[in-house]
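User: Study the fold:
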Amino acid sequence: MQLPTAQELMVPLHAYPHVRSDSTLRQALDTLAAAHIEMHEESSLPRILLVFDQDDALLGLVRRRDILKGLSPRWFSRPDAQHPEAVFDVELDENIGEVLADKVVSRFRDRSECSIEAYTQQISGTVKKDDSLIRLVNIMVEKGYHMLPVLDEEHVIGVVRSVEVLWAVNHLLNGDREA
């Protein structure tokens, strides 16, 4: 039985949203908002952007919630307990944003020009283009990854997401029933 490989299941890099490390949060948000991935006659929205340096080396990833965190005014978050100004341990009133909506939107705009570098996370797992479906399942389950960059030697050529892996497993199981 021939199992599909990472290269056969991947979203090619040209079809997957990615940005340069000198991009702003606004550029990252625009890129993510415009991305629709078409695979297996289905359309999906990506949750992750890849981040590359100026030499096309993969630096890491930025998730949707990382972008939201970067856009949010600092007073949306609890202060660090070690911070010298963190005198009182109080809960933030979630309604404060509603009361100060104009100020929050203004802060969103201001913070949207911040670099994504501070919100970029390292990618600790990659796969080779010839890795089999079984290896992909094992890595995703063992490490808890939702997406893995696919490498051809040292270069990223695409990503394989858990949705494609599930599709392949389902196809494999249904194919076995029909045989």
In short: The chain has one domain: 6-178.
